[in-house]
Amino acid sequence: SVGTRLRTMQKQVRSTQSPSADQIRGLISAIDKAAKRGIIHQNAANRRKARLKKALAAAK
Q1: What is the distance between the alpha carbons of residues 47 and 19, in angstroms, rounded to a whole number?
Q2: How many CB atoms neighbour CB 49 within 10 A?
Q3: How far is CA 47 from the centre of its chain?
Q4: Which of 6, 13, 45, 52 could serve as 19's disulfide partner, Cβ 3.0–4.6 Å?
Q5: Contact yes or no for 46/59 (Cβ under 8 A)
Q6: Cα→Cα distances 29→26, 34, Å
Q7: Taking a C-beta distance cutoff of 8 angstroms, is the pair 6, 52 a contact?
Q8: What's the pTM value of the predicted model, to 2 decimals?
Q9: Can you give the residue ranges of every domain in the chain?
Q10: Which three-class secondary structure string do you get for the chain?
């Protein structure tokens, strides 16, 4: 399901020392899908995505 996929991807990104850009993009996509289906609130999704994008920019 969407929620399970979201949780799994978050664990993968958190457990990796420096997650790849593809992993982060995949997680952002999963967050968008979860918000679209009402699993997480749109504002929570936006907050999570902003934090991921900030981490991705800092890693470059």
Answers
A1: 19
A2: 17
A3: 10
A4: 13
A5: no
A6: 5, 9
A7: no
A8: 0.90
A9: 2-59
A10: CHHHHHHHHHHHHHHCCCCCHHHHHHHHHHHHHHHHCCCCCHHHHHHHHHHHHHHHHHHC
Of 55, 47, 7, 42, residue with least CA distance to 27: 7
Residue with tokens 């457990």: 15
- 51 CB neighbour count, 10 Å cutoff: 10
Instruction: Name the token pair of 7.
Output: 């949780």
